[in-house]
Structures are given as C-alpha cells and as structure tokens.
Write a structure and sequence with these properties.
The chain is built from three helices and eight strands; from the N terminus they run αβαββββββαβ. With 127 residues, it is an alpha+beta fold. It is globular and about 40 Å long. The mean pLDDT is 95. One of its GO terms (biological process) is translation. Belongs to the universal ribosomal protein uS8 family. It comes from Candidatus Wolfebacteria bacterium GW2011_GWC2_39_22.
C-alpha cells in the first residue's frame, strides 16, 4: 500500500540510505513513476519475477544532505476515504508540493486531474 511505501522512503532518507527495496504492486509503481518525474526520488526499477517481484528505489538528496522529501500528509486512510471533484482540488504548498489522486483515468497528480477535469480520491500530499 502507498502508505507503507512512502513511510519507508521517508524513514530511509532520515538515516541517509542510498536505496531501498519494497514489494511490488502496480499502484506503488505508478506512484513511484510520478515521484521520479517530479524529482522526489532519483530512480526506481522493477526487479525479479512474478511471485517475488520488488521495486528497487534510489533515493535523492540535496546538496546539504537533506532528503528531497520534506514532508508527507496522508489525506485518505484505509478507514477514511476523502474524495474531491476537479474544481475542489487545490495546489499544495502554493504550488511547491504535489497531490496524488486516484481517478477513473488512473493515478495522477492534482494538476493533471484539474487539466483533465476528473476528480477522485486524494491519496496524499508531498512537498
């Protein structure tokens, strides 16, 4: 689940790890694709075969040694799902952050959802 994925990334950055491995899921792969395109992680790679497939994630750090991810706020949880329409999706941290949303067209960022005029469940915000 994406909550475990992001928590592992945040914890690994706190102890300055170079890379981590997490179990493979399609949703996690799509979330990592978004994070890599927005430079929150350096890269990711899918390894292994079907039953034991893993995602290898290379973490990214700034010149000062801090992790690229400063904060994460989980909006939806397994016990509480938050849905927003396309006109209710707002920029995160005045445009310096990113909201990840599950829509009928797949998992995408808040900006993409507004452009395509689709709403959905807001997974998390990251900055």
């Amino acid at each position: 689940m994406y909550i475990d994925l992001l928590t592992q990334i945040k914890n690994a950055q706190a102890v300055k790890k170079e890379s981590i491995k997490v179990p493979y899921t399609k949703n996690d792969e799509r979330i990592l694709e978004i994070l890599a395109s927005r430079k929150y992680i350096a890269a990711y790679d899918k390894k292994g075969r079907a039953p034991k497939r893993v995602l290898s994630i290379d973490l990214k750090y700034g010149e000062d040694g801090k992790g690229a991810i400063e904060g994460i706020r989980f909006v939806s949880r397994p016990s509480l799902h938050i849905y927003k329409g396309c006109d209710e999706i707002r920029p995160v941290k005045s445009g310096f952050g990113l909201a990840v949303i599950s829509t009928p067209k797949g998992i995408m960022t808040g900006g993409q959802a507004r452009k395509e005029k689709v709403g959905g469940e807001i997974f998390f915000e990251i900055w």
